[in-house]
Amino acid sequence: MNNHSHTTDRTAPHTTEPRSLPRAVRPAHRALAAVAALGLGMAALTGCSSQNGEQAASNGGESSASQTAAAAPLELGDGWAKAADSGMTAVFGKVTNTSDKDVTLTGAAADGTADSVQLHETAKDGQSGSTRMKEKKGGFTIPAGQSITLEPGGNHIMLMGLTCSLQPGSDLTLRLSTDAGAQDVTVPVRDYSGAKENYAPGDGASGSSDEHSSHGSHEHGEHSSHEGMDMSSSAPAHEHASHGGHADSPSASALPECHGR
Amino acid sequence: MAADHDPSPTGWSRRSLLAGAVAGAGATGIGAVSAAALGATDPRLSAAQDGPRPGLRTEPFHGARQAGVATLPQAFSAFIGLDLNASATRESLRRLLRILTDDAAALTQGEAPLNDQEPWLARNPSRLTVTVGFGPRAVRLVDRSRAPRWLRPLPAFGIDRLQEKWGQADLLLQLCCDDKLTLAHAQRVLLKDVRSFAAVRWVQDGFRNTVGATEDGQTMRNLFGQVDGTVNPYPGEADHDRVVYGQGGFTPWVQDGTSVVIRRIHMNLDTWDEADTPAREDAVGRKLSDGAPLTGRQEHDEPDFAAKGPLGFPVISSYSHVRRSRSDNPDEKIFRRVYNYDLAVSDASGRSRSGDVGGGVSNTGLIFASYQSDPEKQFVPIQKRLDELDMLNTWTVPIGSAVFAIPPGCRPGGFIGDALFT
Ligand code: HEM
Ligand SMILES: [Cu+2]
């Protein structure tokens, strides 16, 4: 468990609390990721949490956890994606290898949502000293029974070239590829101001600071090349809208909203 | 610290605090306060004291009804009025409600929401509740046909000096919590969720005594010093379900739904200072010392409105607040769950005059939150009577008014308001 000693503890902080909800009845969104982790065969279940909350909740409980171990090697716990209107965004959460063999997460896809999806790590740039994200070649190997944490400022799954705008409160379905097969996971989409680390595909990317880029217009996100981009360029347009009070009509170039509520 | 105290992270415990308070009182010569002098305690207002330290106490989030109404009032509140963006749709409102529900469910149970950047601040839930209310526009967006008739501005009252900035909003978030830091964090997290959907119209911060400050089970006092909340259909009493949820009386707008009227009422402490105790007690019809009716000996004695004094006048004046606010019509009942406010005043000096809502060294009042099944049948007639005659009006001025429909609670996996989307 050395990998997440520094991670955010999302479990109940005080297990002694008698009235806190048992895991099985936690809110749908959280249960959802576990449901999705049941594997491809369960894909039909994804995205139905609020229409059929009972089902999602009851399937998110312990009963499914035991099935999961047998049916799929990975579980994404407390997963979520950062909302973005265009450009790039990322997915976070705790990926647990429920099997007794090491599993390597080799890639991911978000068909109908992003042109490409990569696995990224965040590392200090040897020259500038700033933190940059870059593709994690070879993927993430998760030892048997262990977890890795994908989190802002650390490892993450990067969506590039969004083809639709990912709205807060909607769901995003990803297909994870591993050396032990593929599986779908569905995560809720949330507004998030962080996760703005620079992206360095090669060595030559310019080091525009977060400060500068966050003031840039969202046209930034329309660039066809990912080079030198940072995630702040994909700040959701609705944030801009709220600056202008209620004038929040989408710009002409806005992408359609992603499906999946 | 005594060895038998429960260890807690800060080394404080309720017992040590109480012991300290008594010791302090003794040292300054005040002496221990007898329980009798503190006034009567009311089991309806008592929290279960056994169990974890106050910071770890939780209120259930899921259930047929939303928490925060029948919940024993927490020490602090933030009533937040939100205006949905012009482009809001049924669909975007649904997404917002899902997010709010998800995060409220976590925060109230002491868990950090998914994208909480300060998760450590979520660890002391302190009975946090989050209650969502719908203004007219929100209900219309969801389902125009479900909009209750009464979900519109209250009629204008002569005493009103309403300020637009405290007016009707599209959505209400009512946060109540025994800890201010936990409340501030929850507010921040939820407003971050909200900001791409809506703008914050107002935030009304309120407070009561903190946990342990008063004897458990005591009725609160407002900043006039009055015992406030004595006659009230408390949860568990026969009247509560009828008054608040319409059961066996009114037709609820939706099963297990209710409404809240939020009146922001300025209290002029400067002119209140000019009134001496007899005048103050006459204005309300109750004693300031313990809240007993002027005709009774204890807080919960029934007022005797027929009793006459030596000169033949009623002991409880016909213009007193309790006389005027009590109706013979059993429908005209409300459930009050009020909070004090006391805002910081800068560059203050002098006194404010009668009818003023500014000036003086205080900016003080009541967030008068009234819950009832049907505001027009229950709240409005009472407010009308008080508008016509109520001695308390000498010192109070309503400056804000808003009405919200409170949808039922939700089950795990659902979201607040989901019943209206089907
Ligand atoms: C700043 C404004 C107000 C103050 C300081 C205030 C104070 C009080 C006090 C001290 C009592 C007596 C103790 C009790 O039973 O709680 C009382 C009772 C009551 N008040 Fe108010 N009040 C205010 C505004 C209102 C408003 C706006 C309404 C309704 C429109 C209202 C309705 C009532 C009712 C129904 C009672 C109980 C009467 C009964 O004995 O049946 N009050 N209030
Ligand atoms: Cu990245």
TrEMBL record, chain A:
Compositionally biased spans, kind Polar residues: 50-69
Pfam family, one: PCuAC
Top-level lineage group: Bacteria
Basic and acidic residues bias spans: 1-12, 209-229, 237-246
Region span, Disordered: 1-23, 50-71, 122-145, 187-261
Full protein name: Copper chaperone PCu(A)C
Organism: Kocuria tytonis
Lineage: Bacteria, Bacillati, Actinomycetota, Actinomycetes, Micrococcales
From TrEMBL, chain B:
GO CC annotation: cytosol
Cited InterPro entries: Dimeric_a/b-barrel, Dyp_perox_C, Dyp_perox_N, Dyp_peroxidase, TAT_signal
Boundaries of every Dyp-type peroxidase N-terminal domain copy: 66-208
Chain residue ranges for the region called Disordered: 277-307
Annotated PROSITE patterns: DYP_PEROXIDASE, TAT
Feature: compositional bias, Basic and acidic residues: 277-289
Keywords, alphabetical: Heme, Iron, Metal-binding, Oxidoreductase, Peroxidase, Signal
One MF annotation (Gene Ontology) recorded for this entry: heme binding
Stretches assigned to the Dyp-type peroxidase C-terminal domain: 220-410
Cofactor(s) needed for function: heme b
Family: Belongs to the DyP-type peroxidase family.
Protein's name in the database: Dyp-type peroxidase
